[in-house]
Specification:
Blueprint: H1 8-27, H2 32-50, H3 55-62, H4 70-77, E1 79-83, E2 96-103, E3 106-113, H5 119-125, H6 132-147, E4 152-158, H7 165-169, H8 172-183, E5 190-199, H9 200-204, E6 211-215, E7 219-221, H10 225-232, H11 239-246, H12 250-255, E8 261-263, H13 274-292, H14 297-309
Length: 321
């Protein structure tokens, strides 16, 4: 199992408790008092660690290799999922998974970036970095959902859009720009949830919604901390400093009014209890679908447009220069 550097004291204490339990069972020695004391210490240490995470530590949790991905949440939250493929122009982008499904009473379109669990799958999924055909596939299916009056649920989890030569030749920037424009006009409810990494245009390319939510330990940023550090300080090792400066955590984003709700995660991150995290996500989706379905279509589009027009707005009192 992959452990993060700041989790090492927790893992060492967990190991010590397991060794004491094993010794107690094997040698028939009563160590219950010692074990209980260590378990109380472990609980305290976990709370202190995970309730005081730095921005960079949250980025590390968002990238955890055991963190649930889009397809995991599809399995945990939906039923009757039918995957659909292709942009009808070039091909099918495996970095984005999409299809129709049911979330309790609602028939919906699900779209989300998908990373891989091993090297082979990551190559297939391009590490969750979409090509232009991924964004065009997403828009094709959003328009199809609108024809059938089906709401759309989007899961964001990408370091960013793929920046390779082939992607640029096939119109990467145009595909993202067209999605930003056209998602404001999709006349059905759109609920967006950042479940891991929310990187740059790769996230925004499918991220225009009526409600934008984020998991507690996910992040949403104009650039990765490493990319920011490389530009500002010519040193990607300064990523922790960049993470703080970018204000990319769920709390920072909520305070800035960029997201509508923070969805709590189990202590230590979503990978520690995917089922609990999925329940929280399902409840959030159902709440907003019920709310958005009551808004008339013209009003829905007006509110969505205004929501994103406010992003980055500077108040008259903000000092300049």
């Amino acid at each position: 199992m992959a452990n993060l550097d700041f989790e090492r004291p927790i893992k060492e204490l967990e190991k010590k408790i397991e060794e004491l339990k094993h010794f107690s069972s094997e040698r028939k020695v009563d160590l219950s008092t010692e074990i209980k004391t260590l378990e109380e210490k472990l609980l305290k240490l976990r709370k202190e660690t995970y309730q005081n995470l730095t921005a960079w530590q949250r980025v590390q949790i968002a990238r955890h290799p055991r963190r649930p991905y889009t397809i995991d949440y599809i399995k945990l939250i939906t039923t009757d999922f039918i995957e659909l493929h292709g942009d009808r122009l070039f091909g099918d982008d495996k970095a984005i998974i999409s299809g129709f499904a049911k979330i309790e009473p609602y028939k919906v379109l699900i779209i989300g970036q998908q990373k891989g669990r091993d090297i082979k799958e990551n190559i297939l999924r391009n590490f969750g970095c979409a090509h232009p055909e991924g964004f065009r596939k997403s828009m094709r299916l959003m328009k199809l959902a609108a024809q059938f009056n089906l709401p759309i649920v989007v899961f964001i989890d990408t370091p960013g859009a793929y920046p390779g030569i082939g992607a640029e030749e096939r119109g990467q920037a145009q595909a993202i720009a067209e999605n930003l424009r056209d998602m404001t006009k999709i006349n059905v409810p759109i609920v967006v949830i950042v479940i891991g990494e929310g990187g740059s245009g790769g996230a925004l390319g499918i991220g225009v919604g009526d409600r934008v939510c984020i998991l507690e330990n996910a992040y949403y940023s104009v650039i990765s901390p490493e990319g920011c550090a490389a530009i500002l300080w010519k040193d990607s090792a300064k990523a922790p400093l960049a993470a703080e400066a970018l204000k990319l955590t769920s709390e920072d984003l909520f305070k800035a009014g960029l997201i509508d709700e923070i969805i709590p995660e189990p202590l230590g991150g979503a990978h520690n209890n995917p089922q609990e995290t999925a329940r929280s996500i399902r409840q959030t989706i159902l709440k907003y679908l019920k709310e958005l379905n009551l808004i008339p279509e013209d009003k829905l589009l007006e509110l969505r447009y205004e929501k994103f027009r406010k992003v980055g707005r500077i108040s008259p009192s903000t000092p300049s220069g």
